Amino acid sequence: NAAFLAAEEEQPVGMAHILQAARSEYTKLERPLTDAEVKGWVRSVL
Fold it and tell me: CA-to-CA distance for 29 and 27, rounded, in angstroms?
C-alpha cells in the first residue's frame, strides 16, 4: 500500500506513506495503531 500511495504522489516511499498504509491496514482489522506497537516512530513522521 505504501508504494501505491507514493506512486500516486510521484514521490519515493517515505515514512508518511508507510504510516498511512499501516493505519489503513489497522482500520481494516478494526484495531487502533498504538504508539507502543510502532515504538514511537509515528511521532517523528507527524
Answer: 5
Q: What contacts 12, CB < 8 A, 6 or more positions away?
A: 6
Q: Give the Cβ contact number of residue 4 at 10 Å.
A: 10
Mean predicted confidence (pLDDT) in 11-27: 93
The length of the chain in residues reads 46
Determine phi and psi for 13, rounding to 5 degrees.
Answer: -65, 130
Q: 7 or 44: which carries more pLDDT confidence?
A: 7
Please name the helix (run of DSSP H) or strand (run of DSSP E) that holds residue 8, with its range, or none. helix 2-8
